[in-house]
TrEMBL record:
Organism whose genome encodes this protein: Ornithinimicrobium pratense
Molecular function terms, GO-annotated: diaminopimelate decarboxylase activity
Cofactor(s) of this protein: pyridoxal 5'-phosphate
GO-annotated biological processes: lysine biosynthetic process via diaminopimelate
Keyword vocabulary terms for this entry: Amino-acid biosynthesis, Decarboxylase, Lyase, Lysine biosynthesis, Pyridoxal phosphate
Domain Orn/DAP/Arg decarboxylase 2 N-terminal: 37-282
Name of the protein in question: Orn/DAP/Arg decarboxylase 2 N-terminal domain-containing protein
Domain of life assignment: Bacteria
Taxonomic placement: Bacteria, Bacillati, Actinomycetota, Actinomycetes, Micrococcales
PTM-bearing positions, type N6-(pyridoxal phosphate)lysine: K59
Length: 400
């Protein structure tokens, strides 16, 4: 792929910046542009109704400089482990601007969330019972319940999807029973709802359909509880494109649509939360690995890189490649003549494939393959320790 105006949201850096970065990094590395992160946060913030709060989903990229950047913008945070709680606190975020989720929260996780003052999202009656036992405050602990909706749309239902069986949340059909059981635990009070039924969704209309469903569930929950909800959490799922020929998510339409959803639901007077991870962090990062060798095996072209699924696992998990381009250090982005290529890594397993795509035919050892959209679900989602290669460098750039 060549770098053009149409690819600026795919690769965080332009060709001169990539050349400069490559010159300083002898091994595989991730590089992130904090200025781009700030700009994306501000753009999304400006397009959403003022009542909607943004909680950055830390799991998409828990890098401290990035979390600090979002904390500096006044973001809330979505955490899912004691480690993520610590990262947010270390980055200057506060526990009272934090939601805490997870389908199997350990004792340590719950303690960390409670100690920080985060809003815990319970995934079932067991969570309620455990919090009832742990909470020592005088007033009941306000918590949100995660509901697994009966209907939901998602591009990648294999990751997070609505409509089917799920490890997450209380099934919508079981909500009445859950509310009845939760009422027996008087040290805990259900005052909020979280629904998250989409992943990497590029269609604003489909996201809004999910949000309408959530408001509908919220209304029913409020009736079942007999008290007003103070927080409705619409989850994440705002998508980014991994292919240049796909349209980007129309965040302006999403913002305007959310405004309409709020107008349609005057009964809800609490706070509305969106928890985007990928949309905020993916376009801020690239992953770069040098070519070690190339080969053709029975008609299939392979390029073997210094880094593989030990640095980038998502293509193997989802079957979706990151956008790639090739760079010759000292020269620049490589030419237009391309051929279908399988990118393989250094690990001793045929599972070690990090993508398939059109790459320049003249790629040679020492060239760099640059993976765009690698600021999310990349560095910390990989099998870093497998085969004991060094962890990739993390380079943080803040031109601002
Ligand atoms: C509870 C919760 N919130 C938010 C997110 C972020 O999702 P995304 O990165 O798709 O916006 C996730 C991702 O798994 C999640 O589990």
């Amino acid at each position: 792929m060549m770098l053009t105006a149409a690819t600026t949201d795919l690769f965080a850096f332009d060709a001169p910046a990539l050349k400069e970065l490559a010159a300083t990094q002898p091994g595989p590395f991730f590089a992130y542009d904090l200025g781009a992160a700030r700009e994306r946060y501000r753009r999304l913030r400006a397009l959403l109704p003022a009542r909607v709060r943004l909680a950055y989903a830390v799991k998409s990229n828990p890098g401290l400089p990035l979390v600090e950047t979002f904390a500096g913008e006044g973001a809330w945070f979505d955490c899912a482990s004691a480690g993520e709680v610590s990262a947010v606190l270390a980055a200057g975020g506060t526990g009272t601007s934090m939601v805490f989720a997870g389908p199997a929260k350990s004792e340590r996780d719950l303690q960390a969330a409670l100690f920080a003052g985060a809003r815990v999202q319970v995934d079932g009656i067991e969570d309620v019972a455990r919090l009832h036992a742990l909470h020592t405050g005088e007033r009941p602990l306000p918590v949100s319940v995660r509901v697994n909706p009966a209907q939901g749309v998602s591009e990648a239902a294999s990751i997070i999807g609505g409509g089917g069986p799920s490890a997450f949340g209380v099934d919508e059909e079981a909500l009445e029973d859950f509310v009845r059981q939760a009422a027996r635990h008087d040290r805990v009070q259900i005052t909020g709802l979280q629904v998250f039924a989409a992943s990497n969704e590029l269609d604003a209309g489909r996201l809004l359909a999910n949000h309408r469903t959530t408001l509908g569930i919220g209304r029913r929950l409020q009736e079942l509880l007999g008290r007003e909800l103070d927080l409705l959490d619409l989850g994440g799922g705002l998508g980014v494109r991994y292919e240049v020929d796909r349209p980007s998510l129309d965040v302006r339409a999403l913002g305007a649509g959310l405004g309409r959803v709020l107008e349609e639901n005057p009964w809800f007077t609490g706070e509305l939360l969106l928890e985007p991870g990928r949309w905020l962090s993916a376009p801020t990062g690239v992953y770069c690995a040098h070519v070690v060798r190339t080969k053709v095996s029975r008609g299939e072209r392979f390029v073997m890189l210094e880094g593989g699924i030990n640095h980038l696992l998502r293509p193997l998990l989802t079957g979706q490649s990151f956008p790639t381009l090739a760079l010759r250090p000292g020269v620049g982005v490589l030419g237009r003549e391309t051929a279908l290529t399988t990118l393989a890594g250094p690990l001793c397993t045929s599972l070690d494939r990090v993508g398939t795509g059109d790459l320049p035919v003249d790629l040679q050892p020492g060239d760099l393959v640059v993976f765009g959209q690698a600021g999310a679900y990349a560095s910390t989602q990989a099998m870093t320790h497998f085969l004991s290669h060094p962890a990739p460098e993390q380079v943080w750039v803040d031109a601002g």
